[in-house]
C-alpha cells in the first residue's frame, strides 16, 4: 500500500507540475471558448387592418402585462416653436373626451397600474386581471385626447422653469451647446428650445402633432407578460382596431459635417472651479449593422467600458484629473455622434484635453491588445445575456427587426458577430469614426483660468448658453467694476430694498419651511433664525432628519449620516454668514472683508458681485443692479468630486412684517438642480434659545 500511495503521489505531483507550467506560461492566451448560443424567443406577431403591427411575448413569471406602443417617424423640425413635440406628448395624457386628467390618474391608480406618454409612444402596465381596464384607458388616451388651454399653460410653465434651471447647470449647458454645434440649429437634433419658443406653442400645434404622427400604420405595439397571443389579439383588435391610419411626413435633412479643424467652443462661467469638457463631432453610423457592432466594442475599449476603459485609466487612475472620463459612439439612421467627456479642475483643463487627444489618436493608429479585446467582448456578452432576462428585450428585438428590415436571425447571431470582431476591425472602426482633428472641444468653465491654455488645441470661440457666438471677455477681467460704486453702497442698497435696518431690527426670529423633490423623493427643509447669528437648519426626507446644522451664535454643530461635528472660530463664522437671514449686518461684527468684484449676469440680468472673505475662505453674493435685491449666493464646497461651486438662487421676494424675504430658492449640486418653494414663513413666534444650543 505504501508503494502504491507513493506512485499515486508522484503521479499527482508530476501532473501538478505540468499544469502549473502551463498556467505560468503567459506568452499565449488561452484558446477562446466559442461564443454562447443565444436562443431568442420568437414573439407571435400579427398586423391589424389599419397597419398596427403587434408583437406578443408571453412570460408567466409575474401576473402582469405591459403594453409598449412605438411610433416610427423621422425627427421633426420644430422651428420657432421648439419644444412643442415634447409638450404635445405630455398633453395627450391630460384628458380625453370622456375623462379628465384626474379621472385618468384615478382609474390607473385604482388598478395599481402605470401609464406614460412620450414623443415617440405610450407605455401602460397593470396586473393581468386588470388588463382589459388598462387597455380601455390606454386606448382612450391614444385615440381620444382632449387638449385644453389650462393644461397647456401648466406644461409650458413647467417647461420654462426647467429651461431656466438648466442655464446654471454646466453639464446641461455643455450638452445643449454641443448639440447645436454638432448638428446645427436647423437640424432636429440641434435646434434649441427656449422660453421664447415655448411661449409661441399653441393648442393647434399640439393637435396637429397628434393628428399627424399618432397613427397606427407607423405603430409597433409590444404586448409582454402573463398573456397568450390568443388572449391578446381580440383585446388589441377591440381597443385599437377602429383607429384610423393616415399619411405621415418623411422629411429629409442635410447631413451635418464635422468642423474643418478642431475648434474650442468656450462657454464662460466665472464662478466655476471646474470645467465640463466635451470632445464631440457627428458620425455616419447606422444602427444594427456590422459597423455598429464594431463601433460598440471600439467605444467600450476607449471610454464606454467604465473602469476598464482607456480614458478612465488615463485621466483618473494615472493622472488624477477627474473622477471619471467616458466616451460614447451613438448610431442613428440620420446621423450619429461621437463624444468623450469629463469634469476636471480648472488648473488641469488643458492637460486633460491633451490626454483626451492622446487616447483618441492612439486608438485610431494602433490595434487593441488581444487581451484588451477579449476582456471587452466578455463584458459585452455578459451585459447582452443579462438583458435577455427581461421579456421586453425580446419584444424590442422583434420590433427592431421589423423597423430596420434585419435578418430574422440577427439577434440570435449577435454574440457570434461580436466574437468575430478582430483587432484590425477595431482599429479601422476607430480610424473611421473618431476624428480628434475635426472635432468640437466644448468647455464650460472659468475662461480667465482656462482660455489661454486651450489655444494650443485650436481657435477659441466663445458662446453663450444658447449657443450664440459672443465676444471674448476683456483680457484679464471677466467683470466690469462700475465707477463710483463701492461694496458698502451695494450692501446699503440691498438692506434698504428689503425694508431697512429699522424694520429688520423688529424681526426677532424667523421660521421658514420649504419643500423640494429629488428623484421623486419629497424633501422638507425647516430653517429657524433668532437674532442675527443664531440658526438651525434641518433637512428631512421620508420622515427622517438626514442633515442638521445648528449655531448658538458662536459655535456650529453639523449632523448627518450618523455623524456630528462641532466647528468654531473662523469656520463657524463662515457657516453663520452662509446661513444668516441678514448676513450683511453681521459683516463688521465677524470681521468679514467685502470687495466689489464687478458685475456679472445672473439669469440674464446685471448683478453686482460682492466677495466676502473670512480668513482663507471667500463666498460671493450677487445683487441685482436695478432692484438691489440679492439674487444669488455662491460658495465653494468640498464634495466627493472635489471642489464645486454651489450656487443658490434667490427670487420671489414677498413682504412679511415689513421685510422682504425670498420665497423661492434654487440650488445646483453637480448635474442636479433643486427648486425649493416656501410653504410658510412666520416671524416673532418667540423661539426658545434651547433650539439653538450646541453641546
From TrEMBL:
<dbReference type="InterPro" id="IPR007863">
    <property type="entry name" value="Peptidase_M16_C"/>
</dbReference>
<dbReference type="GO" id="GO:0046872">
    <property type="term" value="F:metal ion binding"/>
</dbReference>
<dbReference type="Pfam" id="PF00675">
    <property type="entry name" value="Peptidase_M16"/>
</dbReference>
<feature type="domain" description="Peptidase M16 C-terminal">
    <location>
        <begin position="200"/>
        <end position="379"/>
    </location>
</feature>
<dbReference type="Pfam" id="PF05193">
    <property type="entry name" value="Peptidase_M16_C"/>
</dbReference>
<protein>
    <submittedName>
        <fullName>Insulinase family protein</fullName>
    </submittedName>
</protein>
<dbReference type="InterPro" id="IPR011249">
    <property type="entry name" value="Metalloenz_LuxS/M16"/>
</dbReference>
<dbReference type="InterPro" id="IPR011765">
    <property type="entry name" value="Pept_M16_N"/>
</dbReference>
<feature type="signal peptide">
    <location>
        <begin position="1"/>
        <end position="21"/>
    </location>
</feature>
<dbReference type="InterPro" id="IPR050361">
    <property type="entry name" value="MPP/UQCRC_Complex"/>
</dbReference>
<feature type="domain" description="Peptidase M16 N-terminal">
    <location>
        <begin position="88"/>
        <end position="174"/>
    </location>
</feature>
<keyword id="KW-0732">Signal</keyword>
